[in-house]
Structure to design on (1000 residues):
């Protein structure tokens, strides 16, 4: 970050300020979240995947802007729920296996648009006009799509019209199909049961802002010169990814990507479900620090053999290819049980005067033990509530861990691990 | 023979299949001579790139012969497990070149031969799979310039890719993926590879809309052999159907995995099987594309790494009554066939059923000599005789009638007049319409039993196709005539046997033909039950086209054989 030229940014902004403001905002939410014990999925503000339920969805292709943490505003096209403002990405369509799903698309843009549903079979369409890959809604017009969501899983929906432009511009979203009768399973298999309060979507996208400027200004769209500068999860770049759903300062980017779990004492606790989806134009190697996740499905198909063999794998880095989805289960099991009283780490902890915290604030509790807090150097602000752990989850293509060359940013979020039994902030303890 | 636009893959693969030993095979030799040679490649937007490619070299010619043309990708090598492959490389470039065969037991040649030199590579293809061959010298530049091709090794017997149930297939498609950066092609010796930035994305050396459609009958497995000869990963996706990954780099997976999109890394191969859902209407197309959305030619959409798997059926009418594949059919019947494999001439997957049972409609004594399938309950037909049909009354052999109703083994419906030939100059017995097609723009292609005289043309012979632009159709037919395909310009017509008696036009513009008797054309000969293709480069009064060296459909595979084929609709 040092030595970065002002001219390298498309919009001036005080370096670091936005990041600091956002972190503080996030952490103001943080303690309240850990107090609650878990974020309610489906309600905002809060954390977790936000569902738009039903079997008939009315969407509008429209335009707007998203904010980036370095102070930029990027012109985007997106699917908005009818009657609601522009949002990035489109709403998460949550349906039940067997539903006959209808998606009606109106077009507020000045070019034809459409939707394709990778992974769905037998999609029919009506209205609109024929297109190369899908039936399209002309400018000001509409088109409808219909299909039976016969297989549970995580899927993408995105534009089938000039996708190299329209998907880059933001016409994408996620579709979730829940197994019939088992909304708390990921697939039609009891081993895929998850804690419904711990359901998370990591929907990835990549942005070349100069292409968006070209569309905004009606200039030539040179896709072969694509040079990404921003990367998003659920439409936001880190650290905006760790702000809650529906935060006021990101009105057009309603979905956060903070992952929250509580440490388990045993494998009996239900895991969190993480749904990965890549709507971007390049593959992204994504990994959680300090943890493995169990990959249970790909592209809406459970990893199980013909004889019922369990083909799920524990994975650290998962490369999510363009257009792919994965489903993963995540438990944080305290296998070592380190504690300062009964089971201390067999190493000398550093002295306070040897600790340095960038910009004088930290998420660290001062203690390496889950659930414990300890002293920090004078002058360092500690945003840790009760000794919870924070791990970055991010792309290991580190050029993508940036907001236009300013790190840390881009394709990253954080997982917050609460002590087992919940968070009791020290001030009240 | 010269490359044909869009059909390189099928044409060359057919030729190579002809070179295979007859199954079941004991280990055999397969030899090929390849020139590494400079050439050009034209992109759909008109850009012409300098390329280096492998050219098939006949033993009688030198690499310098103008008919020895490099192709992108190079000629596919197809052998069976246990075969000894002998590739002789001739270097017609101005730098050293070699070939390496990843996955084969052969030490890689990274030194190559000097310009003008040659080298023999010999190996035993010891395991089945999909493999690439490419350069071992100056690898980045030479690969990017186009020096690559596919190697397919099949099991010694059976109809699978790996001897596994999961790798069983009816239709097979080779998809060699690659990119082109024009700045590199313009300056291969000086180009800085760190600046590689492709502008074109290719499947089998072609960019959409010139990519080849994969025709697949519903319900039958389609093997997609993805070979990534490029420098970028391509995550190949299918819309409307999953594909099952059965192997990577020629190693079959113990547990195949169903995916929407699978990443094929540079130098890697992936075998996946997709199935068009049963019951899919003919003509429905499923997009197959790079998930990276590399869908432009330079910056113009549509283009790039996009093709379609198309639900497909073939409809024939035999010329005579008799048995086909154990079932009795009449010349008045229209038969629907599913399943054909361009690469293997086997009846293993041919399913056939009645689309129109002529005797249900009282046509038992008649001969349907032309047919077009319009949709699931509509056919257009021409009949070789004058007849009386329910709903119309008298029709003659120059008419085309429309049938609406229930198709299938219990046919019922009504006829109406679609094209009244006598309204537009087809009045004599010689002017019996014995082949016709309806083009996408609504014009009709018509061929007659013998010479036809209509206004606008001096005459049209039985081997020609006239094109009729209608101003009205039905009982009052009106319109204008022109010449579409002059058969004698392209070697048809020397005998009455070469009367075109069935025609259909494919999506990519290929004219699919069958003749009354055996046909001998430049570079090929066909039997009367065969369907062959002529890819046009110019049409009308001066027709030029290139023939498929093998039939597109070998009538004997379909059991038509002595029955002959006199009506064709491919859709």
């Amino acid at each position: 970050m040092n030595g970065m030229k002002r001219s390298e940014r498309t919009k001036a902004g005080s370096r670091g300020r936005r990041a600091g403001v956002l972190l503080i905002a996030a952490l103001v939410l943080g303690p309240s979240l850990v107090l609650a014990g878990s974020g309610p999925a489906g309600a905002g503000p809060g954390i977790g995947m936000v569902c738009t339920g039903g079997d008939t969805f009315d969407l509008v292709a429209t335009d707007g802007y998203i904010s980036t943490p370095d102070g930029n505003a990027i012109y985007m096209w997106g699917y908005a729920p009818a009657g609601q403002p522009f949002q990035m990405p489109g709403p998460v369509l949550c349906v039940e296996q067997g539903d006959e799903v209808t998606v009606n698309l109106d077009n507020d843009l000045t070019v034809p648009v459409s939707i394709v549903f990778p992974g769905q079979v037998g999609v029919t369409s009506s209205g609109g006009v024929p297109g190369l890959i899908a039936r399209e809604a002309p400018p000001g017009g509409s088109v409808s799509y219909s299909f039976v969501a016969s297989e549970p899983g995580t899927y993408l929906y995105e534009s089938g019209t000039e996708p190299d432009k329209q998907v880059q511009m933001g016409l994408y979203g996620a579709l979730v199909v829940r197994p019939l009768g088992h909304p708390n399973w990921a697939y039609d298999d009891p081993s895929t049961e998850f804690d419904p309060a711990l359901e998370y979507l990591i929907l990835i996208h990549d942005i070349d802002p100069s292409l968006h400027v070209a569309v905004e200004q009606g200039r030539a769209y040179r896709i072969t010169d694509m040079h990404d500068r921003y990367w998003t999860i659920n439409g936001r770049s880190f650290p905006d990814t760790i702000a809650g759903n529906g935060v006021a300062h990101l009105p057009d980017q309603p979905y956060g990507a903070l992952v929250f779990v509580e440490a388990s004492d045993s494998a009996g606790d239900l895991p969190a479900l993480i749904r990965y989806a890549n709507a971007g134009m390049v593959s992204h190697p994504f990994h959680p620090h300090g943890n493995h996740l169990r990959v249970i499905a790909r592209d809406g198909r459970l990893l199980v053999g013909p004889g019922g063999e369990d083909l799920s794998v524990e994975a650290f880095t998962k490369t999510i290819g363009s257009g792919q989805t994965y489903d993963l289960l995540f438990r944080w099991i305290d296998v070592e049980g380190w504690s300062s009283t009964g089971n201390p780490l067999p190493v000398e902890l550093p002295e306070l005067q040897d600790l340095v915290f960038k910009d004088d604030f930290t998420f660290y509790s001062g203690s390496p033990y889950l659930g414990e807090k300890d002293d920090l150097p004078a002058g360092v602000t500690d945003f840790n509530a009760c000794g919870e752990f924070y791990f970055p989850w991010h792309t290991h293509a580190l050029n993508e861990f940036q907001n236009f060359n300013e790190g840390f940013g881009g394709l990253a979020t954080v997982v917050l691990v609460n002590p087992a039994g919940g968070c009791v902030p020290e001030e009240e303890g | 023979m010269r490359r044909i636009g869009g059909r390189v893959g099928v044409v060359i693969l057919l030729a190579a299949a002809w070179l295979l030993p007859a199954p079941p095979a004991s280990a055999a030799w397969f030899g090929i001579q390849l020139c590494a040679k400079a050439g050009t490649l034209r992109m759909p937007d008109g850009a012409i790139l300098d390329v280096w490619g492998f050219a098939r070299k006949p033993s009688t010619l030198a690499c310098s012969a103008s008919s020895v043309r490099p192709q992108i990708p190079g000629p596919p090598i197809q052998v069976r497990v246990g075969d000894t492959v002998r590739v002789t490389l001739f270097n017609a470039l101005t730098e050293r070149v070699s070939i390496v065969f990843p996955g084969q037991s052969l030490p890689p040649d990274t030194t190559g031969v000097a310009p003008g030199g040659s080298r023999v590579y010999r190996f035993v293809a010891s395991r089945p799979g999909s493999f690439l061959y490419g350069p071992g010298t100056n690898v980045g530049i030479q690969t990017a310039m186009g020096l690559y091709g596919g190697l397919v090794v099949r099991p010694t017997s059976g109809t699978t890719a790996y001897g596994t149930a999961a790798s069983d297939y009816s239709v097979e498609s080779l998809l060699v993926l690659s990119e082109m950066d024009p700045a590199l092609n313009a300056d291969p010796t000086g180009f800085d590879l760190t600046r590689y930035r492709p502008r074109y994305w290719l499947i089998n050396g072609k960019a959409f809309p010139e990519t080849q459609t994969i025709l697949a009958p519903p319900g039958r497995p389609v093997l997609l052999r993805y070979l990534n000869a490029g420098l970028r990963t391509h995550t190949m996706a299918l819309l409307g159907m999953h594909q099952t990954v059965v192997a990577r780099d020629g190693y079959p997976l113990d547990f195949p995995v169903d995916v929407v999109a699978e990443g094929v890394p540079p130098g890697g191969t992936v075998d996946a099987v997709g199935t068009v859902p049963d019951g899919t209407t003919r003509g429905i197309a499923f997009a197959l594309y790079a998930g990276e959305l590399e869908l432009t030619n330079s910056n113009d959409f549509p283009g790039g790494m996009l093709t379609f798997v198309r639900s497909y059926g073939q409809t024939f009418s035999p010329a005579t009554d008799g048995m086909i594949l154990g079932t009795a059919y009449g010349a008045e019947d229209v038969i629907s066939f599913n399943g054909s494999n361009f690469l293997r001439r086997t009846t293993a997957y041919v399913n056939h059923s009645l689309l129109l049972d002529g005797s249900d409609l009282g046509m038992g004594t008649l001969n349907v000599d032309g047919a077009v399938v319009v949709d699931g309950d509509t056919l257009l037909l021409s009949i070789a005789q004058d007849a009386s049909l329910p709903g119309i009354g008298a029709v003659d052999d120059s008419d085309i009638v429309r049938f609406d109703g229930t198709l299938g083994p219990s046919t019922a419906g009504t006829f109406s007049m679609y094209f009244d030939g006598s309204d537009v100059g087809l009045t004599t017995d010689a002017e019996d319409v014995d082949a016709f097609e309806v083009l996408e723009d609504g014009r009709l292609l018509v061929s007659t039993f013998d010479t036809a005289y209509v206004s606008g043309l001096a005459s049209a012979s039985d081997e020609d196709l006239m094109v009729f632009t209608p101003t009205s159709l039905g009982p009052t037919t009106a319109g204008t005539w022109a010449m579409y395909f002059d058969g004698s310009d392209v070697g048809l017509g020397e005998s009455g046997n070469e009367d075109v008696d069935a025609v259909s036009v494919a999506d990519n513009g290929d004219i699919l033909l069958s003749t009354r008797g055996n046909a001998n054309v430049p570079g090929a000969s066909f039997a009367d039950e065969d369907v062959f293709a002529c890819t046009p480069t110019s049409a009308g009064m001066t027709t030029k086209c290139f023939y498929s060296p093998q039939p597109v459909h070998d009538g004997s595979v379909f059991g038509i054989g002595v029955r002959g084929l006199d009506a064709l609709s491919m859709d």
Observations:
- DSSP finds three helices and 25 strands in chain A.
- Residues 1-44 of chain A have pLDDT under 50 and may be disordered.
- Chain A touches chain B through 41 residues (CB under 8 Å).
